[in-house]
Amino acid sequence: MVRFRQARTETEWYRWIDATAIQVVPQWFNFLGWVLIIGAFEYLGERTKSVLCVLIVTASIGGLWCYLQAVFDAYHFADLPWATTPRSQRLASLVFSAAVCGVAWFGVQHLVRLLGTA
After folding, report:
1. What is the pLDDT of residues 9-55, one digit of tens each?
2. Helices (DSSP H) in 4-85: which residue ranges?
3. For residues 23 and 103, what is the distance between their CA atoms, to the nearest angstrom?
4. Which of 14, 53, 55, 102 holds its CA 20 to 30 A away from the CA of 93?
5. Is the distance from CB of 105 to CB of 38 less than 8 angstroms?
């Protein structure tokens, strides 16, 4: 859960940043590996016109979409100043998660296309 109004000391912020970095950075590089592999298959599909490569890219991008939805849906945002009821906070969290997922999704698709046509 991400709380926007939670007061923390400087030391607590450093601990939170360290703990978050330890969790997120390995996942980030794992994710980049996925993007590079999908980009490689995109490149092979463009060069060889292989139906198998197109199927692999399509299935991989579909799986990546499901993964991104699951990751961003796991975060719940609380203490938003304009969302005062539990229902409005759930709705705001859902909208924010969907927006972040959409931005990540289009970014990944763009990166895969760039890698595939390079």
Report:
1. 888 888 888 988 898 888 888 888 888 888 888 888 888 999 999 99
2. 10-48, 51-73
3. 21
4. 14
5. no
Rounded to 5°, the CA angle 77-98-53 comes to 135
Confidence (pTM): 0.63
Average pLDDT of the chain? 80
Residue 13 and residue 39 in contact, taking contact as beta carbons nearer than 8 Å: no
Question: Which amino acid is it at 63?
Answer: G
Q: What does the block give as tokens for 20? A: 């978050």
pLDDT at 110 (0 to 100): 83
Which structure tokens are listed for 28? 């980030």
Token code pair at residue 95 = 């909208």
| Residue ranges per structural domain of the chain | 8-117
What's residue 3's pLDDT? 61
Tokens found for residue 108 = 């990944």
pLDDT tens digits, 65-74: 788 777 776 7
Cα angle 98-101-103, degrees, rounded to a multiple of 5: 110
